[in-house]
Amino acid sequence: MARLIYSMLMSLDGYIADRSDKFDWAEPEEEVHAFVNQLERGTGTYLYGRRMYEVMGAWDTLGTDRDPGFIRDFAEMWRAADKVVTSKSLSTVSTAKTRLSELASLRPLTA
């Protein structure tokens, strides 16, 4: 049986994007990024919604020889992992090892 490890990046008030719909507030410094690399090493599959997939899609081209080692390290791990994107609005995905999961039955939970 595989292990499921859930991690999520958000501010203390529960947001991922800021008021300008930007995500750059969460860019970690080298030491933190290297720590996260160790935590995520061996990740087999990433599960994304559309907006987070669009942000993370940059890793498909990041990690060149000009980038620091910790950036290259994460980019290689990200490209090696499978990605599943759940979206009602996307019709295609643009990154390798990625499949679109269009859940027609996806609707809010009711109490």
Give Rg in angstroms.
15 Å
Biggest sheet descriptor: 3 strands, parallel
Mean pLDDT: 86
Gross geometry: globular
**Helix coverage percent:** 25-40%
Distance between the termini: 32 Å
Structural class, please? alpha/beta
Number of helices: 3
What spatial order of strands do you see in the largest sheet? 1-2-3
* Topology order in helix (H) and strand (E) letters: HEHHEE
Strand segment count: 3
Give the percentage of residues in beta strands.
Answer: 5-15%
Question: Spans with pLDDT under 50 lasting ≥5 residues?
Answer: none
Secondary structure elements and pairings:
Blueprint: H1 30-40, E1 45-49, H2 50-56, H3 69-80, E2 82-86, E3 98-101
Parallel strand pairs: 1-2, 2-3
